Amino acid sequence: MSLFNHAVTWLRRHRVLLPGVSVLARQVSEARTAAERRLYQSVARAAHRVDPQLAPALKMLLVVPEGRRVWELERLRTPGRR
User: Fold this and answer.
1) Contact, 47 vs 57, CB < 8 A?
2) What does the alpha-carbon distance between residue 52 and residue 45 come to, in Å, rounded to a whole number?
3) What span, in angstroms and rounded, lies between the C-alpha atoms of 54 and 64?
4) What is the pLDDT of residues 20-74, one digit of tens each?
5) pTM for the structure as a whole
6) How far lies 21's CA from each of 2, 39, 78, in Å?
């Protein structure tokens, strides 16, 4: 929501006619999606340069092992019970 508010503030400060709320919300959402995609691509390229085997190893953390209910990443994320 803060990105939306920042956009409204910027538009008002620069005396730009404000679009409808739904139009501005859609534009903010599209900008956020594009930024997330660029961030993901840069991190993926950097990780591949460091270790080409990193991506397959990370994918394996998302596989639910036979007989288990959660994937390995979830098991690593949650602290032990003791």
Assistant:
1) no
2) 10
3) 18
4) 999 999 999 999 999 999 999 998 899 889 999 988 888 888 888 889 888 888 8
5) 0.60
6) 14, 27, 39
Which position has the token pair 């032990």? Answer: 80
The answer for residues whose C-beta is within 8 angstroms of residue 28's C-beta and 6 or more apart is: 3, 4, 7
Tabulate helix, strand, coil % of the chain (nearest 5): 65, 0, 35
With a CB cutoff of 8 Å and minimum separation 6, the contacts of 13 are none
Q: Where are the domains of the chain?
A: 2-77
Q: How many helices (H) and strands (E) does the chain have?
A: 4, 0
Q: How far is CA 80 from CA 25, 30, 74, 77, in A?
A: 41, 39, 12, 9
Cα 8 to chain centroid, rounded = 23
One-letter amino acid at 44 equals A
